Amino acid sequence: MPEILSMFVRKAIAQAPEGLAAGPLYRVAGLTPAEADDPEAAIPADRYYALLEAIAEAEGPRIGFHMRLSGSMGCEDFGAVGLAWKSAPTIGHSFERMDRFSRLYNPVSTFAPQPMGDEWWWTHHRPQPARKGLYLSNEAALATFAALWRDAAGPDRAPLRVQFAHEPLGTTAALQDYFRCPVDMNADRDALVFSAEMLARPNPVGDETIWRFFQAHLEERFPEVAEDSLDRRIVLHIAGALSEGVPGLEQVAAMVGMGARTLQRRLGELGRTFQSLVEEARRELAFELLAESDYSLVEIAFLTGFAEQSSFTRAVKRWSGRTPRQVRAAAGPRPAAIS
Fold first, then answer.
1. For the domain that residue 280 is a member of, what is the CATH number?
2. Less Cβ crowding at N or C end of the chain, within 10 Å?
3. The domain spanning residue 169 has which CATH number?
4. What pTM was computed for the model?
5. Do 211 and 245 fall within a single domain?
6. Measured CA distances, 270 to 230, 233, 234, 261, 276 (Å)
């Protein structure tokens, strides 16, 4: 199960509405305040989503604590990654390699730059089961990048628009107030959308020499943060879309900024096919949900893109030689659900 750093737990609880006691929220997160002060501490993603859901329930329907959480972030919160961001000569340089180095602080998400005609998209996806806390975290993830941009370039900066793949969580007023641009829901993917002109604007304190120094430092210090191979990125994109049905080749090709024929050719050079990656994504997600979640077998079948539970059962038996119930039983007891 992916984990969320305690920094985000502390900041989320600090932005909870007045009158909501911190103690019960720390218990939902599974940390004491002292444990949450440890910068190396982390909690399972499911607990973090439960924490966000608890705060949102107390605040709704105009949910905005997660925007305040993101707005409280600055480059200094992210160490050398934040320094590289702030010292970049332009916003375009700031985003360079952040699809890799953001994993040091957010290992549960995948970010990717995508040129889209006259626009440039910073896309986000998280291949995990749909739930309100995950959607709140998705919104906060893109809002944090907006916060870093404003920290480096000035508080008045705003993208062309922002879009999210999920339905609105209450009203979108807090999102619009925070991003200061149109916010589209039920889109085909999560993204911050910029123009080419925005990417070329200088950062007031940017210095290319210093930026290159920090980039080299990050490469040297964190060589394990390697760029995902193309086939691995495709698997993650497919897994993130399965709850809406199995995505087609053209849809996934657009997610990685390629044409369908180009993607087929590139996968062929790796000895892979698109259908084999669909199978891999379904298999990985199915086994993770069977082992780590309390979703019913019918729900897991749906979340992995199967129209019927019987088709899902046949697929699991083909992959493992066992039924879904046997796979789940072999994984052992799961943590109790947090209400």
1. 1.10.10.60
2. C
3. 3.90.1520
4. 0.69
5. no
6. 9, 13, 12, 14, 12
- The series of mean pLDDT values per 10 residues for the chain, 339 residues long, is 88 94 96 91 94 94 95 91 90 86 86 83 80 95 95 93 93 95 92 91 86 83 69 82 87 84 89 90 87 86 91 92 89 50
Considering the domain architecture, whether residues 143 and 251 belong to the same structural domain is answered as no
Same domain for 63 and 136, yes or no, is: yes
Determine, yes or no, domain membership for 339: no
The reply to whether 201 and 304 lie within a common domain is no
Domain that holds residue 289: 230-331
Sign of the alpha-carbon dihedral angle for 177, 160, 154, 191: positive
Which of 153, 187, 221 delimits the end of a domain? Answer: 221
**Which position has the token pair 């705003």?**
158
